[in-house]
Amino acid sequence: MSMASIHYDQDADPTVVSGRRVAVIGYGSQGHAHALNLRESGVEVMVGLRPSSKRRVEAEGEGLAVGTVPEVAAWADVVMVLVPDQHAADLYAAEIAPHLVNGDALMFAHGFNIHFGEITPDPGLDVLMVAPKGPGHLVRRTYIEGSGVPCLLAVHQDASGSAKQLGLSYAWGIGGTRAGVLETTFEEETETDLFGEQVILCGGMSELIKASYETLVGAGYQPESAYFETLHELKLIVDLLYEGGLTWMRYSVSDTAEWGDYSTGPRIVTEETRQVMAEVLDDIRSGRFARQWMDEARAGAPNLLDRRSRERAHEIEQVGARLRDLMPFLTPKAPG
After folding, report:
1. Three-state secondary structure string covering the chain
2. Residues 105-126: pLDDT tens digits?
3. What backbone torsions phi and psi does residue 230 show, to the nearest 5 degrees?
4. Residue 314 annotated to the active site
5. How far is residue 309's CA from residue 283's CA, in Å, rounded to a whole number?
6. Residues 114, 156: contact at Cβ < 8 Å?
7. Is residue 38 classed exposed, middle or buried when 0-12, 13-18 and 19+ CB atoms within 10 A define those classes?
8. Confidence of residue 3 (pLDDT cuts 50, 70, 90)
9. Span 10-25, mean pLDDT?
């Protein structure tokens, strides 16, 4: 098994990014963290937003310079695109690409649009990715605390011959080199990221939670008891996994739970399940998933919106909302 190359503060030259003008396109979860961290690292930053964006007030309230996307793309020589995958290609073609010149750098925090050919940059541009492996609020919080979130670094196009150095310097600017920057490729980052989201982190986990909840309630157990066992306590296990992997989790739970892990896990994740995982990976690698998602998005995402509405109405969500109201240590969370 080959090991990834990992870089730290001593491998990055801060003067590379501090000598550039950086446009951060978008001011959501990642955008706000990148813009604020870079500025506090001594980098000249502007945020690019649509004139109607509700985020403009937030960015200006933090003292950041804000302009339209075309304005900041023309001003900058490094453009980091931090908008949702389904919007990036159209935004790039209409408002970013016309203002880039040879020698500029185009950056992403996810490889989707480059890897699947939604965006094809001019050959005179550096094209690279710096992808924090954590949500934006964590990127921001850890930076303030003096640490950082590990990042992935990939170079798709090295027109200048120094794209990697820029990527490492940018990662330094957002705090990534404090934790470690792993070298990868756009292909590997995109395909493993989509696979993880679909098979375990979102898709697989959501369906397992609902199916186990429905099994218990269908067998006559109280919905509240089912909620605690199938959703609420999941955080305890995930925290143990995060801290020390499978071994630490199994050490920390009871012997009964550990034996149930070994004896029952393979009955849930069967050879048939593994075959479906392989099929999911094939859909991702072949581009089928990307084409289906982009077709859905460009049609106005009717199926996504319908499924979102139905999933929010699931009984486990109603029971959970009631129970979380009884937990004073939790701050209520609801979609905007």
Report:
1. CCCCCEECHHHCCHHHHHCCEEEEECCCHHHHHHHHHHHHCCCEEEEECCCCCCHHHHHHHCCCEEECHHHHHHHCCEEEECCCHHHHHHHHHHHHHHHCCCCCEEEECCCHHHHCCCCCCCCCCEEEEEEECCCHHHHHHHHHHCCCCCEEEEEEECCCCCHHHHHHHHHHHCCHHHHCEEECCHHHHHHHHHHHHHHHHCHHHHHHHHHHHHHHHHCCCCHHHHHHHHHHCHHHHHHHHHHHHHHHHHHHCCHHHHHHHHHHHHHHCCHHHHHHHHHHHHHHHHCHHHHHHHHHHHCCCHHHHHHHHHHHCCHHHHHHHHHHCCCCCCCCCCCC
2. 999 999 999 999 999 999 999 9
3. -105, -15
4. no
5. 26
6. yes
7. buried
8. confident
9. 98
**What is the per-residue pLDDT across 273-294, written as a single tens digit (0 to 9) for each?**
999 999 999 999 999 999 999 9
- Average pLDDT score, the chain: 97
Longest dimension (CA), the chain: 67
153 forms bridges with which residues in the sheet? 130, 183
Phi first, then psi, for residue 4 (nearest 5°) are -70, 150
Query: Does the pTM of the predicted model rise above 0.85?
Result: yes
Q: Are 94 and 23 in contact (CB under 8 A)?
A: no
How much is the CA Rg of the chain, to the nearest whole Å? 22
Residues 45-77 as b or e (16 or more Cβ within 10 Å = b): bbbbbeeebebbebbeeeebebbebebbbbbbe
Cβ atoms within 10 A of the Cβ of 215, count?
12
Using CA atoms, how far apart are residues 79 and 211, in angstroms rounded to an integer?
Answer: 44
Q: What is the pLDDT at residue 334? A: 83
φ, ψ at 90 (rounded to 5°): -65, -40
Angle at 193 between CA 188 and CA 199, to 5 degrees: 125
What are the backbone angles phi and psi of residue 89, rounded to the nearest 5°? Answer: -65, -45
Which residue is catalytic, options 110, 115, 137, 314? Answer: 110
